[in-house]
Automatic annotation (TrEMBL):
It comes from Runella defluvii. It catalyses: N-terminal L-arginyl-[protein] + L-leucyl-tRNA(Leu) = N-terminal L-leucyl-L-arginyl-[protein] + tRNA(Leu) + H(+); L-phenylalanyl-tRNA(Phe) + an N-terminal L-alpha-aminoacyl-[protein] = an N-terminal L-phenylalanyl-L-alpha-aminoacyl-[protein] + tRNA(Phe); N-terminal L-lysyl-[protein] + L-leucyl-tRNA(Leu) = N-terminal L-leucyl-L-lysyl-[protein] + tRNA(Leu) + H(+). The lineage of its organism: Bacteria, Pseudomonadati, Bacteroidota, Cytophagia, Cytophagales. It holds the Pfam family Leu_Phe_trans. This is Leucyl/phenylalanyl-tRNA--protein transferase. Functions in the N-end rule pathway of protein degradation where it conjugates Leu, Phe and, less efficiently, Met from aminoacyl-tRNAs to the N-termini of proteins containing an N-terminal arginine or lysine.
Amino acid sequence: MSLLSADDLIYGYMNGIFPMADSDGTLYWYSPDPRAVIPLDTYKPAKSLRPVLNKGTFEIRINADFEGVMRGCAAPRPDEENTWISEEIIDAYTELHRLGFAHSVETYVDNQLVGGLYGVAIGAVFFGESMFHTVSNASKVAFHYLIETLRRQKYELLDTQFINDNVRRFGAIEIPKSDYVRLLKRGIAQKARFTDDSVAHLFTSL
């Protein structure tokens, strides 16, 4: 069986499916019904996060250490025994990043990576994959920057795949798979560019 490739990932995302690895490394493709998405027009940062944003506690970088973010997301967590991010997945997504389809939003303190997230961008759709933090609020700030970037760049859909408490706090909702496929097809037919615009413009709407 051939290894997961960047082409496999692009085909999968364009058709509403995505891979995850089992504990033994076996890859499975998923297409949840219902599907979790975060409406871009309704997200608001939590009141408790606003002082952190206004202080500029974290330095934001885009695509500076994509693999580092993936490995941060793959690291063991207290409430999870295994990770679905295998070495095969890291290799494939890193290649997708080199091709310009996968991106990371990173937070730094004293030049050290302390949090971030990564995902895939096709057309005007961003497929959020995972996030991590080693310092409180680091991933929340990265997510806030992601939302601001997607809004500025006129993205239409932010896919978060499965519903859970982590994405609920960012405003995630579930929609029927049929509705998701319709939004997906419309979104990937549009043009949008994921860019690292000036951080100075990020928090003007707080």
